[in-house]
Amino acid sequence: MLRNIPGIIVICAVIAGCATKPVIEADNTPLNRTAVIEQQVVSNGIKGFFPFESTERHYVRTNMRRDESTFKGTGTFTGFLVGLRSDTEITRIDRKLKWLLDTKKEEYTECPLKGCIRPSKPPAEQKQPAEKPPQEKHETGCTMHIVHNSFTVKATGQKKTINGFDTDEYQAVWLVNLRDNSARKSTSTLKLNVWTTPMTGAMRDALEMEESYARTFNGAVSDTGKREIMPTDATRLISAYLANSMKPGELKEFLKAGKQMEKVKGYPISTHLAWDMEGDACAPKETNDKKPSGNTAPSSAGDMVSGLAGMFAQKKTEDSMKEAAGEPILSLTFEVKKLGIEPLHDSVFTVPKNYKRVSQP
Fold first, then answer.
1. Going by DSSP bridges, is the β-strand pair 185-197/165-180 parallel, antiparallel, or unpaired?
2. What is the pTM of this model?
3. Three-state secondary-structure class, residue 92
């Protein structure tokens, strides 16, 4: 029995060694004040087609920033088509360079401050047939004009805590009456539920730090005390949806009316909006000989927003329209998860030591 003891000791030592957790190297880089901004968008797409979620995290100092974004399709088809995509980018004004990180492969690409130069497509790709433009959902050559618009907003008196922010609820309704050259009419209805919070010193410091970075990077100046009540993605989508039915000047006036939403007091933490159009102004002529063409997979919320209007028109089959009955054109929720100043290690703005540098694609 004693002859087996040395072997047992060796086996136990090996097992103990395998069970030992890898030592995590302590982060000894300096801690410095950093603006931390995290935002999330949840959208049902258009009429329930191609819903998605996106999250953006920004870590900002006066001369450097780190931007992380994730984007995923949440519908059965969109989840399969898009899956989950993420990007991480570090911009260092002080070093006049930018790093693009591939967190899955633990690789990075180093680029000039202005960004990487994207190579032209190889000849084989250029020979592929171009994607057909989406079918427009309006009568060709028809334009709509604003007849009347109204905006109402009221404080409901409701209060609740969202992501650590104490908020008050506002409800707003924005109605726009439109008419085309044939006197056909439509009404645009935008309903918003907005939860706002008073601007705190930490929030203002974070926004001012982001402005300072923008000014250092390209001289841009923004109003740090305000944020548009209407989420950017929603504005882009509505603009894209109406672009072919309204002249540029009319569309600009249409969108400018939304600035009346500044009547909502405080900084918006959560905004839920539902937008719909009813009526027959510039209604398209019914055709049954059009088949939806293929679409490339979007890689970001911006790509999704840019293509949604066309995708909806392509999917306008009798069955899909029945399924979408009662759905608004757009339903979207925007939330601020974090907005403030935190002490973060300088390592946040550097490439991890174990990452391998690769050349530009």
1. antiparallel
2. 0.74
3. strand
